[in-house]
Write a structure and sequence with these properties.
Elements: E1 2-4, E2 7-10, H1 14-24, E3 29-32, E4 49-50, H2 59-69, H3 76-95, E5 102-103, E6 106-107, E7 120-121, H4 127-141, E8 145-148, E9 151-157, E10 177-182, E11 187-192, E12 195-198, H5 219-227, E13 231-232, E14 237-244, H6 260-264, E15 268-270, H7 290-304, E16 309-312, H8 318-324, H9 326-334, E17 344-353, E18 356-358, E19 370-372, E20 377-378, H10 391-407, H11 433-436, H12 438-450, H13 457-479, H14 485-506, E21 532-533
Parallel strand pairs: 1-11, 2-3, 2-12, 3-8, 12-19, 18-20
Antiparallel strand pairs: 4-7, 5-6, 9-10, 10-11, 13-18, 13-21, 14-17, 15-16, 16-17
Helix pairs in contact: 1-4, 1-10, 2-3, 3-10, 5-14, 12-13, 12-14, 13-14
Amino acid sequence: MIHQTDVLVIGSGIAGLFYALRMADERQVVLVTKKETVESNTNYAQGGIASVFDENDSFELHIEDTIRAGAGLCKREVVETVVREGPALIRELIAWGVRFTERNGKLDLGREGGHTRHRIVHAQDLTGKEIESALVRHVRNHPNVRILENHVAVELITEHNLRRGHASLHEPVHCYGAYVLDTARSIVGTFLAPVTVLSTGGCGQVYLHTTNPAIATGDGIAMAYRAGARIANLEFIQFHPTTLYRSEDHEGDRAFLISEAVRGFGALLRTSSGERFMAQYDDRLELAPRDIVARAIDAELKRRGEECVYLDLTHLDSAEVRRFFPHITETCARYGIDITRDWIPVVPAAHYVCGGVMSDLEGRSSIEGLFVCGETAMTGLHGANRLASNSLLEALVFADRAARATLTMKPERIDSAEILPWDDSDTYNVREWVLISHNRKEIQTLMWDFVGIVRSTLRLERAKRRIDFLLQEIEDFYKRTRVSAKLIELRNLALVANLIVTCALHRKESRGLHYTTDYPRPDPHLDGKDTILSIFSPPINHVAV
């Protein structure tokens, strides 16, 4: 089945929804999403959006905080653009009905690690959910937006899928849309559009323990790489320092995040004996950037042989704690923890990828007709380490800029007769899925054990050998099997895991979120240099030859 539209948006986080609304007054938009529209990393963002609203703050301070956290890899032009354009877009969210927390008639600004001022705009401790809900309401009510839930993008459509043949190595690659699986009917449709936008979120599910929902399997990064897009800086995986430790956790469950704002509010990190330890690692103590806090906790756990450290809020006003963090208070209470009286047991978990599909200042990827925004993108804002609460800000700004750039383009739809149809006539439902499905757990375990907070060349090489084998095994299974959502995700996870390890092996230094015992110090000669990977070969699709 062939579908034609002006714009195809893949993913329904803040970036995809905001872009769709920007476009909808002048273009027909189809938005495809793997699950329901409210399931995304945005929905689980507790802390807020970092932006300058306080009279004691300034754009320059926010810019410098971001660049300092990014450890020499931030692109200053991008940082300046995002910081300066953010406040107006947040005001627009408010106009659309997003209810941010206020105090005395003004935005109640919080503070998080790495920030030198109070600048976190939040909706108590459920900011992402509040933004997502408001945007979903507007998208659902717009007549020019068609939402297709439970649809999984399989592959981008490029010159490789044209009847006239593949593009040469010397010609630009164009994106004409995507093949998309309707999971309810088990049918792959062809969705064609002059502009395709990848806003599929991150890849936290590549790790055994993550704050990300089950859908965060790196789909956009994997599809873009197979299509020939430039990918960069996937070695920079941010581990959130403080997620709730539960001894009865099942491996692979989404870890519950204890927001950075809790430390910004005054919570202290302690060992089981009550010792505060952050002074040994950074003079900013609990408000150091996430990479430093996560490594400090990791070091303390290994040194002491313990399973968790603790966040202590017991010295703070209990009524204020409950007022500012109602969701965290309620969730911890379900596990028998009164956060106003008890220390909260916490451990790090994979949280955010600072690398992704490279884009310019308008969100264009290296493939013509393909835009990228949100966590899928590598814009140059975050560098080697994302400053807390800059991600939602980045998503807003780049969705807005991508939409403005798209509106300058004249929609020219490709003739559907030129596109090869999806063909799965030589495939069948293979009974060995129960065997191949175990590969997901093995990939997650390998990545957690060998490509985690602290790395070494030996560990990375061991992970690479095993993941190379798993990737080949999964590709072989994929080529002879009818696609399913689980198989698509497994294939993408395997590829993204491989790319993360490859990027990590390329970076012969420790910088930001990438720490290796073989190269413990940053290399000053590598300041400003990204780890760029790209490929140009036909993707392995089930299409007629």
